[in-house]
Specification:
Layout: E1 16-18, E2 29-34, H1 45-57, E3 66-70, H2 74-86, E4 89-95, H3 100-108, E5 112-116, H4 128-138, E6 142-143, H5 152-168, E7 175-179, H6 184-196, E8 201-207, E9 240-244, H7 246-260, H8 266-280, E10 287-292, H9 306-311, H10 323-328, E11 340-341, H11 346-355, E12 360-364, E13 374-379, H12 380-389, H13 398-401, E14 407-410, H14 415-424, E15 427-432, E16 435-441, H15 442-451
Helix pairs in contact: 1-2, 1-5, 5-6, 7-8
Bound molecules: pyridoxal-5'-phosphate (PLP).
Pyridoxal-5'-phosphate (PLP) binds next to helix 2 and helix 6.
C-alpha cells in the first residue's frame, strides 16, 4: 500500500509549474513553486513540525506543554497541524489586520487566538511579539518556537526547499525570487542553492512599506515584509530587491488565479511581479524560480473581494456605464423603439405588443421619434384589466385607455439614473437631442448587467 504515516509526511515536495500567461513575452523560463499545495496551504508547514521536534529534543517542550507563537496565520496553521498530532495546546497571537478566515481556521484546529493592534511599534507592550513573549513567560510549560529567531526555520528550507528546486530544475536554476517575512525561506533556500551555484541571482520581493528595501509604513500585503530585521534572515544572500506596492501585488495575485488557475495569496503576487521584472532582463537560457507561499483561500474576503479593494482604494472606480450602452446591447432583431398610435384601436395595439413580444409601448400622436409626440403608454397589465371587465374596450381608441407617458432618460446619463426611474415604472424612454432612441425595460437592464464582462 502507498500510505503516509500521518499528514505531516505530506509536507514538501511541492510541484514546480511554468507560468505562461503572467510571464508572457519574457524570454527566460519562469517557474512557480506551489507551496500552497502543502497540507496546511502554505510554505510554513515546512517549519512547523521542524521547530516542534527540535524543541522536544532539547527538552523545551514536554508532553502536555503549550505552544505560543506570534504569527500572521500560516505558521500557526503549520504548527497547529503538528501540535494536533503531537497533542499540544496552542495559543497564537496575531495583529488585527489579519483575515477572519485565518483566525477561524486556527480555531478549527482547537487553537486559541489572541488579537493585538497592528499600528503599534514592535517594542510596544501591545505588539503581537511582546504579547506572545508575556504569555510564554506566564504559562507554565509554554514554549515559543519563535519563527523570527529559530534557526530551524531557515534550516528547514536548506534541507528541503533548496534541494527540491535544485533537483526539479536539474541544477539549471539561474535566479530565485522569494518574498521575505522572517527570511527563513529565502535564507535557507538561497544558501543551499548558492552553495551549488555561486552565480545564482537571489532576488528579495518586498512590499512597499517594509524595512528591507526602504521606508517603513503600513501596508496590506500579508506575511511578507517587516518593520525589524529578524535573526532568521541573512540579508547578505540577497543580490537584489524589488519593491512592490499592494495594488500591483493584488492585481498580479488575481491574474495568477484567473489566468494560470493557481489560487494564490497577495504575497505570491508580490513575488511574481518581482520575478517577471527580473526575468524581462534575462535571456532564453535563464530559469527563474519564484516561490508562491500560500493559497488565496485565506483572502477571499480581502484581495478577491472587489468591494474590499475599492474600500482601500486599490482598484479604479468602475467605469461609468451610460444608458446608451444598455440600449446598444439589446439583442435580437427587435427594433429598439416600437410605438403605438393614439388613434389606433386597442385591438391593434394588442397585436403590436404580441408581434414583438413586448409588454408595453409608448403611444405617439403622430408617427415619428420627436419626444413631443409621445403622449402616453400602453401596458399589457392595464389593457388586460380594462378588457376583462369591458370587452367593448377592444374597439376603443388607444388614446382612451392609455396610461401616462413613460419617464424620459437622456442617452448619456449614467445607468443609475435609468435604474432609479425603473423603480417607479416598468420602462424608460431613452432620448437624445429631443428624439426618442428606444425603450429600456427592467429586463433589458437586468440582462445587460448579467452579461457584462467583469472588469
Ligand atoms: C503568506 C506568506 N508569504 C510569505 C512568507 C515569507 O516567508 P518567510 O517567513 O520564510 O520569509 C510568509 C511568512 O509568514 C507568509 O505568511
Amino acid at each position: 500500500m502507498e500510505v503516509l504515516g500521518s499528514i505531516l509526511e505530506a509536507v514538501g515536495d511541492t510541484p514546480l509549474v511554468r507560468l505562461t500567461k503572467v510571464a508572457g513575452g519574457v524570454r527566460a523560463t519562469v517557474l512557480a513553486k506551489l507551496e500552497m499545495l502543502n497540507p496546511g496551504g502554505s510554505v510554513k508547514d515546512r517549519i512547523g513540525l521542524r521547530m516542534i521536534e527540535a524543541a522536544e529534543r532539547q527538552g523545551l517542550l514536554r508532553p502536555g506543554g503549550t505552544i505560543v507563537e506570534p504569527t500572521s496565520g500560516n505558521t500557526g496553521h503549520g504548527l497547529a497541524i503538528a501540535a494536533a498530532i503531537h497533542g499540544y495546546r496552542c495559543i497564537f497571537v496575531m495583529p488585527d489586520k489579519m483575515s477572519q478566515e485565518k483566525i477561524a481556521l486556527l480555531r478549527a484546529y482547537g487553537a486559541e487566538v489572541v488579537i493585538t493592534p497592528t499600528a503599534v511599534p514592535p517594542e510596544s507592550p501591545e505588539s503581537y511579539y511582546r504579547v506572545a513573549d508575556r504569555l510564554t513567560e506566564e504559562i507554565p510549560g509554554a514554549f515559543q518556537p519563535n519563527q523570527y529567531f529559530n534557526a530551524e526555520n531557515p534550516a528547514a528550507h536548506y534541507d528541503t526547499t533548496g534541494p527540491e528546486i535544485w533537483r526539479q530544475t536539474d541544477g539549471r536554476i539561474t535566479a530565485l525570487v522569494v518574498g521575505v517575512g522572517t527570511g527563513g525561506t529565502i535564507t535557507g533556500t538561497a544558501r543551499y542553492l548558492k552553495e551549488r551555484n555561486p552565480d545564482l541571482l537571489v532576488v528579495g520581493a518586498d512590499p512597499e512599506g517594509s524595512i528591507y528595501s526602504g521606508e517603513v509604513h503600513p501596508y496590506l500585503t500579508e506575511g511578507i515584509g517587516e518593520d525589524f530585521w529578524p535573526d532568521t534572515f541573512d540579508p547578505s544572500l540577497v543580490d537584489r530587491w524589488v519593491r512592490v506596492g499592494d495594488r500591483e501585488a493584488f492585481r498580479m495575485a488575481r491574474r495568477i488565479t484567473r489566468e494560470e488557475g493557481i489560487l494564490v495569496g497577495g504575497s505570491s503576487g508580490t513575488a511574481v511581479v518581482a520575478a517577471v521584472e527580473v526575468a524581462r532582463e534575462l535571456g532564453p537560457d535563464d530559469v527563474v524560480v519564484v516561490i508562491l507561499p500560500d493559497t488565496g483561500r485565506n483572502y477571499l474576503s480581502k484581495l478577491y473581494s472587489d468591494s474590499w479593494l475599492l474600500q482601500y482604494g486599490l482598484t479604479d472606480r468602475p467605469e461609468v456605464l451610460r444608458v446608451e450602452e444598455v440600449l446598444q446591447a439589446k439583442h435580437g432583431d427587435m427594433p429598439s423603439l416600437v410605438t403605438v398610435n393614439a388613434h389606433e384601436k386597442v385591438r391593434q395595439a394588442i397585436d403590436v405588443l404580441q408581434e414583438y413580444s413586448i409588454s408595453q409601448a409608448p403611444v405617439v400622436r403622430e408617427a415619428g421619434v420627436d419626444v413631443t409626440q409621445f403622449v402616453g403608454a400602453v401596458h399589457e397589465n392595464a389593457l388586460l384589466d380594462r378588457i376583462f371587465r369591458d370587452p367593448d374596450a377592444l374597439q376603443a381608441d388607444v388614446a382612451e385607455v392609455m396610461g401616462p407617458p413613460i419617464a424620459l432618460v437622456e442617452f448619456d446619463e449614467p445607468i443609475e439614473v435609468a435604474f432609479e426611474a425603473l423603480q417607479h415604472g416598468p420602462a424608460v424612454l431613452v432620448v437624445k437631442a429631443g428624439q426618442a432612441l428606444g425603450v429600456l425595460t427592467r429586463s433589458d437592464l437586468l440582462e445587460f448587467l448579467a452579461h457584462r464582462r467583469p472588469a
